[in-house]
Amino acid sequence: MATAARIPLGPSVDAIAARSTEAVEVFEIGYDSLDGVRIAGWYCVPRREHIPPPYPGLLLVPGYISEPTLPKSWAKLGYAAVGVAPRGKLRSNRQYNPGYPGLLVDNVVDRNTYAYRGFYVDAARAVDFLRNRPEVDRARIGVHGSSQGGALTITTAALRADAIACGAAGAPYLCGMMDAAGLTHSYPYEEINEYLRLYPEREQAVRETLNYFDGINFAPLIRCPMQINIGLRDDVCPPETGFALYDALGCEKTLHPYPNCAHDAGSHWEAPRIVEFLARHLQPAGALVRA
Amino acid sequence: MSSELDTFWDAVDAELARYPMAPELQPLPMRSTDSSTTYAVRLTSLGPYRIFGYYSVPKGSARAPGLLLTPRYGSVNHVPDYHDRERYAVLQLMHRGQRLADRPFAAEYPGLLTLGIHSPETFIYRAIVADCMRGADFLLSRREVDLDHVAVQGDDLALLTASRRAGFTAVQAHELLLYRLLEAAQVTDEYPIEELNDYLHTNPDSGPAVQHTLEFFDPLQHAPRIRATTLLASGDGAGDGPSGGGWLQPLYQAVGGPSEIYRLTHNGAVDHDWMDAWLARQLGGQPRSRFLEPV
Q: Among A104, A250, B25, B118, which is least packed by CB within 10 angstroms?
Protein backbone atom coordinates (compact mmCIF):
# COMPACT_ATOMS: atom_id res chain seq x y z
CA MET A 1 0.00 0.00 0.00
CA ALA A 2 2.97 2.30 0.61
CA THR A 3 4.18 1.64 -2.92
CA ALA A 4 0.71 2.29 -4.27
CA ALA A 5 0.41 5.52 -2.30
CA ARG A 6 3.37 6.92 -4.22
CA ILE A 7 1.61 6.38 -7.56
CA PRO A 8 -0.50 9.37 -8.66
CA LEU A 9 -4.10 8.28 -9.16
CA GLY A 10 -4.42 10.04 -12.53
CA PRO A 11 -8.20 9.74 -12.60
CA SER A 12 -10.22 10.10 -15.79
CA VAL A 13 -13.98 10.64 -15.89
CA ASP A 14 -15.81 10.44 -19.23
CA ALA A 15 -19.56 10.98 -19.42
CA ILE A 16 -21.55 8.22 -21.14
CA ALA A 17 -24.70 9.95 -22.34
CA ALA A 18 -26.11 6.77 -23.88
CA ARG A 19 -26.37 5.07 -20.48
CA SER A 20 -27.41 8.13 -18.46
CA THR A 21 -31.00 8.86 -17.51
CA GLU A 22 -33.05 11.74 -16.18
CA ALA A 23 -32.13 10.69 -12.64
CA VAL A 24 -28.56 9.36 -12.99
CA GLU A 25 -25.40 10.38 -14.79
CA VAL A 26 -23.10 7.57 -15.92
CA PHE A 27 -19.36 7.91 -16.41
CA GLU A 28 -16.61 5.59 -17.52
CA ILE A 29 -13.64 6.12 -15.22
CA GLY A 30 -10.00 5.13 -15.09
CA TYR A 31 -7.09 5.41 -12.67
CA ASP A 32 -3.55 4.14 -12.27
CA SER A 33 -2.56 1.33 -9.96
CA LEU A 34 0.41 -0.90 -9.12
CA ASP A 35 2.75 -2.02 -11.90
CA GLY A 36 1.51 0.77 -14.17
CA VAL A 37 -1.82 -0.98 -14.75
CA ARG A 38 -4.71 1.27 -15.76
CA ILE A 39 -7.93 0.32 -13.98
CA ALA A 40 -11.38 0.93 -15.46
CA GLY A 41 -14.74 1.29 -13.81
CA TRP A 42 -18.21 2.73 -13.98
CA TYR A 43 -19.26 5.70 -11.90
CA CYS A 44 -22.90 6.65 -11.40
CA VAL A 45 -24.15 9.71 -9.53
CA PRO A 46 -27.59 11.17 -9.00
CA ARG A 47 -28.32 14.22 -11.08
CA ARG A 48 -28.19 17.32 -8.90
CA GLU A 49 -31.76 18.25 -9.74
CA HIS A 50 -32.84 14.76 -8.69
CA ILE A 51 -30.83 14.55 -5.44
CA PRO A 52 -28.43 17.37 -4.46
CA PRO A 53 -24.91 16.56 -3.21
CA PRO A 54 -23.06 15.67 -1.07
CA TYR A 55 -23.54 11.94 -1.63
CA PRO A 56 -22.31 8.96 0.32
CA GLY A 57 -19.85 6.93 -1.72
CA LEU A 58 -20.39 3.25 -2.44
CA LEU A 59 -17.83 0.91 -3.95
CA LEU A 60 -19.25 -2.19 -5.68
CA VAL A 61 -16.67 -4.93 -6.14
CA PRO A 62 -17.12 -7.75 -8.66
CA GLY A 63 -17.28 -11.52 -8.50
CA TYR A 64 -14.65 -13.78 -10.03
CA ILE A 65 -16.18 -14.19 -13.47
CA SER A 66 -18.77 -11.42 -13.40
CA GLU A 67 -18.52 -8.09 -15.11
CA PRO A 68 -18.19 -4.96 -12.97
CA THR A 69 -21.52 -3.55 -11.88
CA LEU A 70 -22.81 -0.49 -13.69
CA PRO A 71 -24.45 0.83 -10.52
CA LYS A 72 -27.29 2.99 -11.82
CA SER A 73 -29.83 1.55 -9.42
CA TRP A 74 -27.59 2.44 -6.45
CA ALA A 75 -27.20 6.00 -7.74
CA LYS A 76 -30.98 6.29 -7.90
CA LEU A 77 -30.97 5.63 -4.17
CA GLY A 78 -28.63 8.57 -3.63
CA TYR A 79 -25.16 7.03 -3.73
CA ALA A 80 -22.17 8.12 -5.76
CA ALA A 81 -21.38 4.57 -6.76
CA VAL A 82 -18.34 3.01 -8.43
CA GLY A 83 -18.32 -0.43 -10.05
CA VAL A 84 -14.65 -1.25 -10.41
CA ALA A 85 -12.89 -3.65 -12.82
CA PRO A 86 -9.66 -4.77 -11.13
CA ARG A 87 -6.81 -5.91 -13.38
CA GLY A 88 -7.63 -8.76 -15.74
CA LYS A 89 -11.31 -7.83 -16.00
CA LEU A 90 -12.66 -6.43 -19.25
CA ARG A 91 -11.37 -2.90 -19.93
CA SER A 92 -8.59 -3.43 -17.33
CA ASN A 93 -6.82 -6.27 -19.11
CA ARG A 94 -4.57 -4.55 -21.62
CA GLN A 95 -1.46 -4.99 -19.44
CA TYR A 96 -2.49 -8.01 -17.35
CA ASN A 97 -4.75 -10.81 -18.50
CA PRO A 98 -4.29 -14.18 -16.76
CA GLY A 99 -7.75 -15.41 -17.80
CA TYR A 100 -10.50 -17.37 -16.08
CA PRO A 101 -9.55 -19.97 -14.97
CA GLY A 102 -6.09 -18.68 -14.28
CA LEU A 103 -6.27 -15.65 -12.00
CA LEU A 104 -6.40 -17.60 -8.74
CA VAL A 105 -3.13 -19.43 -9.37
CA ASP A 106 -1.24 -16.84 -11.40
CA ASN A 107 2.21 -16.60 -9.78
CA VAL A 108 0.81 -18.34 -6.71
CA VAL A 109 4.27 -19.44 -5.55
CA ASP A 110 5.46 -15.84 -5.09
CA ARG A 111 3.74 -13.38 -2.81
CA ASN A 112 5.49 -10.43 -4.46
CA THR A 113 4.01 -11.07 -7.88
CA TYR A 114 0.87 -13.08 -7.03
CA ALA A 115 -2.23 -12.00 -8.96
CA TYR A 116 -4.18 -10.71 -5.99
CA ARG A 117 -1.37 -8.39 -4.84
CA GLY A 118 -2.29 -5.93 -7.56
CA PHE A 119 -5.95 -6.96 -7.63
CA TYR A 120 -6.51 -6.02 -3.96
CA VAL A 121 -4.75 -2.69 -4.45
CA ASP A 122 -6.80 -1.94 -7.58
CA ALA A 123 -9.99 -2.27 -5.54
CA ALA A 124 -8.65 -0.25 -2.61
CA ARG A 125 -7.65 2.61 -4.91
CA ALA A 126 -11.25 3.01 -6.02
CA VAL A 127 -11.77 4.39 -2.52
CA ASP A 128 -9.22 7.09 -3.36
CA PHE A 129 -11.15 7.83 -6.54
CA LEU A 130 -14.31 8.39 -4.49
CA ARG A 131 -12.49 10.46 -1.87
CA ASN A 132 -11.21 12.77 -4.60
CA ARG A 133 -14.68 13.51 -5.96
CA PRO A 134 -16.05 16.86 -4.73
CA GLU A 135 -19.63 15.56 -4.65
CA VAL A 136 -18.75 12.69 -2.26
CA ASP A 137 -18.88 12.96 1.53
CA ARG A 138 -15.56 11.38 2.59
CA ALA A 139 -16.97 10.33 5.95
CA ARG A 140 -19.63 8.14 4.35
CA ILE A 141 -18.00 5.63 2.01
CA GLY A 142 -19.08 1.99 2.05
CA VAL A 143 -18.14 -1.15 0.16
CA HIS A 144 -20.22 -4.12 -0.94
CA GLY A 145 -19.92 -7.25 -3.03
CA SER A 146 -20.49 -10.99 -3.08
CA SER A 147 -18.19 -13.95 -3.63
CA GLN A 148 -14.93 -12.42 -4.87
CA GLY A 149 -16.75 -9.14 -4.24
CA GLY A 150 -17.21 -10.33 -0.67
CA ALA A 151 -13.48 -10.94 -0.42
CA LEU A 152 -12.69 -7.51 -1.86
CA THR A 153 -15.15 -5.98 0.59
CA ILE A 154 -13.08 -7.50 3.41
CA THR A 155 -9.68 -6.56 2.02
CA THR A 156 -10.74 -3.03 1.06
CA ALA A 157 -12.31 -2.40 4.46
CA ALA A 158 -9.05 -3.62 6.03
CA LEU A 159 -6.56 -1.88 3.74
CA ARG A 160 -8.55 1.38 3.88
CA ALA A 161 -9.75 1.12 7.47
CA ASP A 162 -9.21 4.87 7.71
CA ALA A 163 -11.73 5.55 4.97
CA ILE A 164 -14.46 2.88 4.97
CA ALA A 165 -17.59 3.49 7.05
CA CYS A 166 -19.25 0.09 6.58
CA GLY A 167 -19.12 -3.06 4.47
CA ALA A 168 -21.53 -5.78 3.38
CA ALA A 169 -19.87 -9.00 2.21
CA GLY A 170 -21.81 -11.90 0.70
CA ALA A 171 -20.44 -15.45 0.45
CA PRO A 172 -16.90 -14.19 0.99
CA TYR A 173 -14.32 -15.89 -1.21
CA LEU A 174 -10.53 -15.94 -0.65
CA CYS A 175 -10.94 -16.88 3.01
CA GLY A 176 -9.24 -20.00 4.31
CA MET A 177 -8.26 -20.75 0.75
CA MET A 178 -6.30 -23.97 1.22
CA ASP A 179 -8.97 -25.41 3.51
CA ALA A 180 -11.67 -24.33 1.07
CA ALA A 181 -9.96 -26.11 -1.82
CA GLY A 182 -10.03 -29.28 0.25
CA LEU A 183 -13.76 -28.92 0.86
CA THR A 184 -14.96 -28.45 -2.70
CA HIS A 185 -14.55 -29.37 -6.35
CA SER A 186 -16.28 -26.19 -7.55
CA TYR A 187 -14.48 -23.40 -9.37
CA PRO A 188 -12.66 -21.12 -8.70
CA TYR A 189 -11.08 -23.03 -5.75
CA GLU A 190 -10.84 -26.09 -8.00
CA GLU A 191 -8.05 -24.14 -9.74
CA ILE A 192 -5.91 -24.73 -6.62
CA ASN A 193 -6.71 -28.45 -6.65
CA GLU A 194 -5.81 -28.64 -10.33
CA TYR A 195 -2.58 -26.75 -9.81
CA LEU A 196 -1.48 -28.96 -6.93
CA ARG A 197 -2.43 -32.14 -8.81
CA LEU A 198 0.08 -31.08 -11.44
CA TYR A 199 2.66 -29.60 -9.07
CA PRO A 200 2.28 -31.31 -5.67
CA GLU A 201 5.80 -30.31 -4.66
CA ARG A 202 4.75 -26.65 -4.65
CA GLU A 203 2.11 -26.99 -1.94
CA GLN A 204 4.19 -25.34 0.79
CA ALA A 205 5.03 -22.37 -1.42
CA VAL A 206 1.39 -21.98 -2.40
CA ARG A 207 0.29 -22.15 1.22
CA GLU A 208 2.84 -19.52 2.25
CA THR A 209 1.76 -17.15 -0.53
CA LEU A 210 -1.94 -17.51 0.15
CA ASN A 211 -1.46 -16.68 3.83
CA TYR A 212 -0.57 -13.15 2.75
CA PHE A 213 -3.84 -12.82 0.82
CA ASP A 214 -6.30 -14.65 3.04
CA GLY A 215 -9.30 -12.56 4.01
CA ILE A 216 -9.28 -14.13 7.48
CA ASN A 217 -5.90 -12.49 8.08
CA PHE A 218 -7.24 -9.12 6.92
CA ALA A 219 -10.31 -9.28 9.16
CA PRO A 220 -8.73 -8.04 12.42
CA LEU A 221 -7.69 -4.81 10.67
CA ILE A 222 -11.30 -3.79 9.98
CA ARG A 223 -12.78 -1.12 12.26
CA CYS A 224 -16.12 -0.34 10.62
CA PRO A 225 -19.44 -2.21 11.00
CA MET A 226 -19.65 -5.28 8.78
CA GLN A 227 -22.56 -7.42 7.66
CA ILE A 228 -21.83 -10.93 6.36
CA ASN A 229 -24.20 -13.39 4.68
CA ILE A 230 -23.35 -16.98 3.88
CA GLY A 231 -25.06 -20.09 2.54
CA LEU A 232 -24.65 -23.11 4.76
CA ARG A 233 -24.57 -25.39 1.71
CA ASP A 234 -22.28 -23.20 -0.37
CA ASP A 235 -20.13 -25.43 -2.60
CA VAL A 236 -18.15 -22.48 -4.03
CA CYS A 237 -17.10 -20.79 -0.79
CA PRO A 238 -17.60 -23.39 1.95
CA PRO A 239 -19.43 -22.00 4.97
CA GLU A 240 -16.67 -23.12 7.32
CA THR A 241 -14.53 -20.36 5.85
CA GLY A 242 -17.28 -17.78 6.24
CA PHE A 243 -17.62 -18.63 9.93
CA ALA A 244 -13.85 -18.41 10.37
CA LEU A 245 -13.87 -14.98 8.75
CA TYR A 246 -16.70 -13.82 10.97
CA ASP A 247 -14.90 -15.05 14.09
CA ALA A 248 -11.77 -13.12 13.07
CA LEU A 249 -13.60 -9.80 12.72
CA GLY A 250 -12.98 -7.55 15.72
CA CYS A 251 -15.38 -4.81 14.62
CA GLU A 252 -19.15 -4.39 15.08
CA LYS A 253 -20.51 -7.28 13.02
CA THR A 254 -23.62 -9.18 11.98
CA LEU A 255 -23.85 -12.63 10.40
CA HIS A 256 -26.81 -13.85 8.35
CA PRO A 257 -26.48 -17.59 7.68
CA TYR A 258 -28.96 -19.21 5.29
CA PRO A 259 -29.34 -22.97 5.96
CA ASN A 260 -30.46 -24.29 2.56
CA CYS A 261 -28.63 -21.82 0.40
CA ALA A 262 -25.55 -22.38 -1.70
CA HIS A 263 -23.39 -19.68 -3.24
CA ASP A 264 -26.47 -17.50 -3.59
CA ALA A 265 -26.05 -17.06 0.18
CA GLY A 266 -29.70 -16.17 0.57
CA SER A 267 -29.52 -13.25 -1.86
CA HIS A 268 -33.28 -13.41 -2.44
CA TRP A 269 -33.84 -12.39 1.18
CA GLU A 270 -30.52 -10.70 1.85
CA ALA A 271 -30.70 -8.06 -0.88
CA PRO A 272 -33.16 -5.79 0.97
CA ARG A 273 -31.22 -6.32 4.22
CA ILE A 274 -28.06 -5.08 2.49
CA VAL A 275 -29.88 -2.01 1.17
CA GLU A 276 -31.13 -1.30 4.68
CA PHE A 277 -27.71 -1.89 6.30
CA LEU A 278 -25.89 0.40 3.90
CA ALA A 279 -28.59 3.06 4.17
CA ARG A 280 -28.44 2.96 7.98
CA HIS A 281 -24.71 3.65 7.99
CA LEU A 282 -24.33 5.81 4.88
CA GLN A 283 -27.58 7.80 4.95
CA PRO A 284 -28.25 8.29 1.22
CA ALA A 285 -30.94 10.86 0.58
CA GLY A 286 -32.87 8.66 -1.83
CA ALA A 287 -33.16 5.53 0.31
CA LEU A 288 -35.80 4.81 2.86
CA VAL A 289 -34.11 4.23 6.19
CA ARG A 290 -36.00 2.17 8.70
CA ALA A 291 -36.01 3.63 12.18
CA MET B 1 -44.36 -14.97 -38.01
CA SER B 2 -43.96 -18.74 -38.22
CA SER B 3 -43.02 -18.93 -41.92
CA GLU B 4 -40.88 -15.78 -41.73
CA LEU B 5 -39.13 -17.26 -38.71
CA ASP B 6 -38.51 -20.55 -40.45
CA THR B 7 -37.18 -18.83 -43.55
CA PHE B 8 -34.80 -16.73 -41.47
CA TRP B 9 -33.42 -19.60 -39.44
CA ASP B 10 -33.32 -22.03 -42.36
CA ALA B 11 -31.08 -19.50 -44.09
CA VAL B 12 -28.85 -19.36 -41.01
CA ASP B 13 -28.65 -23.16 -41.01
CA ALA B 14 -27.84 -23.24 -44.71
CA GLU B 15 -25.11 -20.64 -44.24
CA LEU B 16 -23.67 -22.53 -41.29
CA ALA B 17 -23.67 -25.76 -43.29
CA ARG B 18 -21.38 -24.17 -45.86
CA TYR B 19 -18.55 -24.05 -43.31
CA PRO B 20 -16.90 -27.31 -42.29
CA MET B 21 -16.89 -27.63 -38.51
CA ALA B 22 -13.13 -28.39 -38.55
CA PRO B 23 -12.96 -29.55 -34.92
CA GLU B 24 -9.61 -29.30 -33.20
CA LEU B 25 -9.21 -30.98 -29.81
CA GLN B 26 -6.30 -30.35 -27.49
CA PRO B 27 -6.02 -32.28 -24.21
CA LEU B 28 -5.77 -30.09 -21.12
CA PRO B 29 -3.87 -32.01 -18.41
CA MET B 30 -4.48 -29.21 -15.90
CA ARG B 31 -8.28 -29.58 -16.19
CA SER B 32 -8.30 -33.39 -16.39
CA THR B 33 -8.72 -35.75 -13.45
CA ASP B 34 -8.56 -39.46 -12.68
CA SER B 35 -12.17 -39.72 -13.80
CA SER B 36 -12.39 -37.41 -16.81
CA THR B 37 -10.34 -35.96 -19.64
CA THR B 38 -10.88 -32.34 -20.61
CA TYR B 39 -10.03 -30.83 -23.97
CA ALA B 40 -9.91 -27.38 -25.48
CA VAL B 41 -12.10 -27.51 -28.59
CA ARG B 42 -12.09 -25.10 -31.47
CA LEU B 43 -14.81 -25.13 -34.12
CA THR B 44 -15.67 -23.02 -37.13
CA SER B 45 -19.01 -21.22 -37.09
CA LEU B 46 -20.64 -18.54 -39.24
CA GLY B 47 -18.36 -15.92 -40.65
CA PRO B 48 -16.24 -18.03 -40.76
CA TYR B 49 -15.37 -17.53 -37.11
CA ARG B 50 -13.46 -19.84 -34.79
CA ILE B 51 -15.28 -20.48 -31.49
CA PHE B 52 -14.08 -22.28 -28.36
CA GLY B 53 -15.31 -24.85 -25.90
CA TYR B 54 -14.23 -26.94 -22.95
CA TYR B 55 -15.13 -30.54 -23.72
CA SER B 56 -14.81 -33.20 -21.05
CA VAL B 57 -15.32 -36.95 -21.37
CA PRO B 58 -15.63 -39.44 -18.47
CA LYS B 59 -12.97 -42.11 -18.39
CA GLY B 60 -13.81 -45.78 -18.44
CA SER B 61 -17.20 -45.89 -20.15
CA ALA B 62 -17.82 -46.69 -23.80
CA ARG B 63 -20.50 -44.07 -24.19
CA ALA B 64 -21.62 -41.32 -21.87
CA PRO B 65 -24.74 -39.17 -21.84
CA GLY B 66 -24.07 -35.85 -23.56
CA LEU B 67 -24.60 -32.39 -22.13
CA LEU B 68 -24.27 -29.08 -23.96
CA LEU B 69 -23.92 -26.02 -21.74
CA THR B 70 -24.80 -22.91 -23.71
CA PRO B 71 -22.87 -19.74 -22.87
CA ARG B 72 -24.07 -17.37 -20.15
CA TYR B 73 -24.40 -13.63 -20.72
CA GLY B 74 -20.95 -12.33 -19.79
CA SER B 75 -17.38 -12.56 -20.91
CA VAL B 76 -16.45 -15.75 -19.04
CA ASN B 77 -17.82 -19.29 -18.75
CA HIS B 78 -16.39 -21.72 -16.22
CA VAL B 79 -14.90 -25.09 -17.06
CA PRO B 80 -17.74 -27.62 -16.62
CA ASP B 81 -18.39 -28.64 -13.05
CA TYR B 82 -16.38 -31.54 -11.68
CA HIS B 83 -19.49 -33.62 -10.94
CA ASP B 84 -20.88 -33.11 -14.44
CA ARG B 85 -17.53 -34.10 -15.93
CA GLU B 86 -17.68 -37.40 -14.03
CA ARG B 87 -21.14 -38.25 -15.38
CA TYR B 88 -21.49 -36.71 -18.82
CA ALA B 89 -19.62 -35.94 -22.01
CA VAL B 90 -20.06 -32.23 -21.46
CA LEU B 91 -19.32 -29.28 -23.72
CA GLN B 92 -19.21 -25.75 -22.30
CA LEU B 93 -19.35 -23.47 -25.30
CA MET B 94 -17.96 -19.94 -25.56
CA HIS B 95 -19.74 -17.96 -28.25
CA ARG B 96 -17.92 -15.41 -30.36
CA GLY B 97 -16.84 -12.41 -28.36
CA GLN B 98 -16.38 -14.27 -25.08
CA ARG B 99 -12.99 -15.06 -23.57
CA LEU B 100 -11.12 -17.70 -25.57
CA ALA B 101 -13.35 -16.88 -28.57
CA ASP B 102 -12.66 -13.15 -28.55
CA ARG B 103 -10.39 -12.77 -31.55
CA PRO B 104 -11.04 -10.85 -33.69
CA PHE B 105 -14.32 -9.89 -32.03
CA ALA B 106 -14.33 -9.04 -28.31
CA ALA B 107 -17.79 -8.48 -26.88
CA GLU B 108 -18.48 -5.49 -24.68
CA TYR B 109 -20.45 -5.75 -21.46
CA PRO B 110 -22.64 -3.79 -21.39
CA GLY B 111 -23.18 -3.56 -25.11
CA LEU B 112 -23.52 -7.06 -26.53
CA LEU B 113 -27.25 -7.31 -25.95
CA THR B 114 -28.08 -4.54 -28.39
CA LEU B 115 -25.29 -4.99 -30.92
CA GLY B 116 -26.87 -4.78 -34.36
CA ILE B 117 -30.38 -4.98 -32.89
CA HIS B 118 -31.89 -2.72 -35.56
CA SER B 119 -32.32 -5.74 -37.82
CA PRO B 120 -32.55 -9.52 -37.37
CA GLU B 121 -29.88 -9.93 -40.04
CA THR B 122 -27.38 -7.80 -38.17
CA PHE B 123 -28.29 -8.67 -34.56
CA ILE B 124 -25.29 -10.34 -32.92
CA TYR B 125 -27.51 -13.12 -31.58
CA ARG B 126 -28.00 -14.43 -35.12
CA ALA B 127 -24.35 -15.49 -35.06
CA ILE B 128 -24.38 -16.44 -31.38
CA VAL B 129 -27.28 -18.86 -31.91
CA ALA B 130 -25.38 -20.28 -34.89
CA ASP B 131 -22.38 -20.77 -32.59
CA CYS B 132 -24.59 -22.79 -30.24
CA MET B 133 -25.95 -24.86 -33.11
CA ARG B 134 -22.37 -25.58 -34.13
CA GLY B 135 -21.63 -26.71 -30.59
CA ALA B 136 -24.64 -29.01 -30.81
CA ASP B 137 -23.41 -30.37 -34.13
CA PHE B 138 -20.08 -31.18 -32.50
CA LEU B 139 -21.54 -32.93 -29.45
CA LEU B 140 -24.05 -34.89 -31.53
CA SER B 141 -21.24 -36.06 -33.82
CA ARG B 142 -19.10 -37.62 -31.10
CA ARG B 143 -18.76 -41.39 -30.97
CA GLU B 144 -18.31 -41.37 -27.18
CA VAL B 145 -21.72 -39.73 -26.70
CA ASP B 146 -24.82 -41.85 -26.05
CA LEU B 147 -27.11 -40.24 -28.61
CA ASP B 148 -30.21 -41.52 -26.84
CA HIS B 149 -29.37 -39.29 -23.87
CA VAL B 150 -28.26 -35.79 -24.81
CA ALA B 151 -29.38 -32.61 -23.04
CA VAL B 152 -28.83 -28.91 -23.44
CA GLN B 153 -28.79 -26.58 -20.46
CA GLY B 154 -28.68 -22.79 -20.25
CA ASP B 155 -30.80 -19.72 -20.91
CA ASP B 156 -32.72 -18.80 -24.08
CA LEU B 157 -29.82 -20.14 -26.11
CA ALA B 158 -30.53 -23.64 -24.83
CA LEU B 159 -34.15 -23.37 -25.97
CA LEU B 160 -33.26 -21.97 -29.39
CA THR B 161 -30.62 -24.65 -29.87
CA ALA B 162 -33.06 -27.40 -28.93
CA SER B 163 -35.59 -25.98 -31.37
CA ARG B 164 -33.09 -26.09 -34.23
CA ARG B 165 -31.46 -29.45 -33.46
CA ALA B 166 -33.60 -32.55 -33.09
CA GLY B 167 -30.95 -34.66 -31.35
CA PHE B 168 -31.66 -33.49 -27.83
CA THR B 169 -33.67 -35.61 -25.45
CA ALA B 170 -33.93 -32.95 -22.76
CA VAL B 171 -33.56 -29.21 -22.33
CA GLN B 172 -33.30 -27.31 -19.08
CA ALA B 173 -33.63 -23.54 -19.19
CA HIS B 174 -33.39 -20.83 -16.57
CA GLU B 175 -32.64 -17.11 -16.21
CA LEU B 176 -34.03 -16.29 -19.65
CA LEU B 177 -32.86 -13.04 -21.22
CA LEU B 178 -34.42 -12.82 -24.68
CA TYR B 179 -37.86 -14.05 -23.61
CA ARG B 180 -40.42 -11.20 -23.66
CA LEU B 181 -37.44 -8.88 -23.41
CA LEU B 182 -39.24 -5.66 -24.27
CA GLU B 183 -41.80 -6.30 -21.53
CA ALA B 184 -39.09 -7.19 -19.03
CA ALA B 185 -37.19 -4.00 -19.85
CA GLN B 186 -40.17 -1.91 -18.82
CA VAL B 187 -39.96 -3.06 -15.20
CA THR B 188 -36.23 -3.02 -14.45
CA ASP B 189 -33.20 -0.78 -14.50
CA GLU B 190 -30.75 -3.60 -13.79
CA TYR B 191 -28.19 -4.73 -16.33
CA PRO B 192 -28.04 -6.53 -18.68
CA ILE B 193 -31.71 -5.83 -19.50
CA GLU B 194 -31.10 -2.13 -18.90
CA GLU B 195 -28.92 -2.21 -22.03
CA LEU B 196 -32.12 -2.35 -24.03
CA ASN B 197 -33.56 0.66 -22.20
CA ASP B 198 -30.33 2.55 -22.88
CA TYR B 199 -30.64 1.71 -26.57
CA LEU B 200 -34.27 2.74 -26.82
CA HIS B 201 -33.53 5.94 -24.90
CA THR B 202 -30.70 6.81 -27.28
CA ASN B 203 -32.60 5.70 -30.40
CA PRO B 204 -36.16 6.77 -29.63
CA ASP B 205 -37.50 5.88 -33.08
CA SER B 206 -36.12 2.36 -33.02
CA GLY B 207 -38.92 0.69 -31.05
CA PRO B 208 -40.70 -1.02 -33.97
CA ALA B 209 -37.44 -2.25 -35.51
CA VAL B 210 -36.22 -3.61 -32.17
CA GLN B 211 -39.53 -5.36 -31.60
CA HIS B 212 -39.33 -6.89 -35.07
CA THR B 213 -35.79 -8.13 -34.46
CA LEU B 214 -36.52 -9.61 -31.06
CA GLU B 215 -39.42 -11.66 -32.40
CA PHE B 216 -36.88 -13.76 -34.30
CA PHE B 217 -34.97 -14.53 -31.11
CA ASP B 218 -37.68 -14.87 -28.48
CA PRO B 219 -37.83 -18.52 -27.37
CA LEU B 220 -41.59 -18.17 -27.33
CA GLN B 221 -41.51 -18.19 -31.14
CA HIS B 222 -39.22 -21.21 -31.23
CA ALA B 223 -40.91 -23.30 -28.55
CA PRO B 224 -43.37 -25.18 -30.82
CA ARG B 225 -40.41 -26.77 -32.61
CA ILE B 226 -38.92 -28.16 -29.38
CA ARG B 227 -39.58 -31.89 -29.05
CA ALA B 228 -37.17 -32.57 -26.19
CA THR B 229 -38.53 -32.96 -22.66
CA THR B 230 -38.28 -29.44 -21.29
CA LEU B 231 -37.86 -28.00 -17.83
CA LEU B 232 -38.30 -24.28 -17.24
CA ALA B 233 -37.15 -22.77 -13.95
CA SER B 234 -39.50 -20.01 -12.90
CA GLY B 235 -39.76 -17.34 -10.25
CA ASP B 236 -42.29 -17.77 -7.49
CA GLY B 237 -43.43 -14.19 -7.08
CA ALA B 238 -46.98 -12.94 -7.32
CA GLY B 239 -48.33 -11.60 -10.59
CA ASP B 240 -47.25 -12.03 -14.17
CA GLY B 241 -44.05 -9.94 -14.07
CA PRO B 242 -40.61 -11.43 -14.79
CA SER B 243 -40.19 -12.69 -11.23
CA GLY B 244 -43.76 -13.96 -11.05
CA GLY B 245 -44.94 -17.52 -11.26
CA GLY B 246 -47.01 -16.77 -14.34
CA TRP B 247 -44.26 -15.17 -16.43
CA LEU B 248 -43.23 -18.39 -18.18
CA GLN B 249 -46.75 -19.80 -18.66
CA PRO B 250 -46.98 -18.77 -22.36
CA LEU B 251 -43.63 -20.42 -23.03
CA TYR B 252 -44.54 -23.53 -21.10
CA GLN B 253 -47.74 -23.87 -23.10
CA ALA B 254 -45.97 -23.28 -26.41
CA VAL B 255 -43.31 -25.99 -26.03
CA GLY B 256 -43.94 -28.73 -28.59
CA GLY B 257 -42.75 -31.61 -26.41
CA PRO B 258 -43.41 -32.64 -22.82
CA SER B 259 -42.63 -29.77 -20.48
CA GLU B 260 -42.79 -28.78 -16.86
CA ILE B 261 -42.09 -25.75 -14.72
CA TYR B 262 -39.98 -25.81 -11.58
CA ARG B 263 -40.77 -23.01 -9.15
CA LEU B 264 -37.50 -21.82 -7.65
CA THR B 265 -37.41 -21.83 -3.85
CA HIS B 266 -34.44 -19.39 -3.86
CA ASN B 267 -32.68 -21.80 -1.52
CA GLY B 268 -29.82 -22.31 -3.96
CA ALA B 269 -28.76 -25.74 -2.76
CA VAL B 270 -32.32 -27.07 -2.81
CA ASP B 271 -32.90 -25.68 -6.30
CA HIS B 272 -29.60 -27.01 -7.61
CA ASP B 273 -30.18 -30.49 -6.23
CA TRP B 274 -33.71 -30.64 -7.65
CA MET B 275 -32.65 -29.52 -11.11
CA ASP B 276 -29.60 -31.79 -11.07
CA ALA B 277 -31.79 -34.77 -10.19
CA TRP B 278 -34.23 -33.88 -12.99
CA LEU B 279 -31.42 -33.75 -15.52
CA ALA B 280 -29.89 -36.99 -14.23
CA ARG B 281 -33.28 -38.71 -14.68
CA GLN B 282 -33.46 -37.53 -18.28
CA LEU B 283 -29.92 -38.68 -19.00
CA GLY B 284 -29.97 -41.95 -17.10
CA GLY B 285 -27.38 -40.69 -14.63
CA GLN B 286 -27.12 -40.46 -10.88
CA PRO B 287 -28.08 -37.26 -9.04
CA ARG B 288 -25.24 -35.41 -7.35
CA SER B 289 -25.10 -32.64 -4.81
CA ARG B 290 -22.20 -30.26 -5.27
CA PHE B 291 -22.04 -29.64 -1.55
CA LEU B 292 -19.50 -31.95 0.03
CA GLU B 293 -20.12 -32.94 3.62
CA PRO B 294 -16.97 -32.27 5.67
CA VAL B 295 -15.12 -35.44 6.67
A: A250
Residue B210, Cβ density class (10 Å: 0-12 exposed, 13-18 middle, ≥19 buried): buried
Measured CA distances, A97 to A59, A92, A100, B151 (Å):
23, 8, 9, 33
Q: Do A183 and B292 touch (CB under 8 A)?
A: yes
- Averaged pLDDT, A224-233: 98
pTM of structure: 0.96
Tell me the mean pLDDT in the region B113-122. 98
Alpha-carbon distance A6 to B251, whole Å?
58
Q: How far is B213 from chain A (nearest CA, A)?
A: 21
> Distance (Å) from the C-alpha of residue B13 to the closest C-alpha of chain A?
31
pLDDT tier, A287 (very low <50, low <70, confident <90, very high otherwise) = low
Q: What whole-number percentage of chain B has pLDDT above 90? A: 91
CATH class name, domain B2-281: alpha beta
CATH assignment of the domain containing A22 = 3.40.50.1820
Closest CA to A144 of A132, A135, A154: A154
Contact A83, A68 (CB under 8 A): yes
Q: Do B30 and A198 touch (CB under 8 A)?
A: yes
Residue closest to A73 by CA, chosen among A84, A90, A63, A58: A58
In this predicted structure, which of B66-70, B200-204, B234-238 has the lowest mean pLDDT? B234-238
Q: ∠ CA A185-A191-A195 to the nearest 5 degrees?
A: 115
CA atoms within 13 A on the CB side of A234: 30
Residue B127 has a pLDDT of 98
Determine, yes or no, domain membership for A268: yes
Query: A46 lies in which domain range?
Result: 2-282
Of A183, A195, A198, the CB nearest to B294: A183
Is B290 within 8 Å of A185 when comparing Cβ atoms?
yes
Counted domains in chain A: 1
Domain locations in chain B as residue ranges: 2-281
Residue A212 inside a domain? The answer is: yes
* A289 within domain boundaries: no
CB–CB contact B30 A70 (8 Å): no
Q: Which residues of A touch B292 (CB under 8 A)?
A: 183-185, 235
Answer whether residue B72 shows pLDDT above 80.
yes
Q: Are B268 and B275 in contact (CB under 8 A)?
A: no
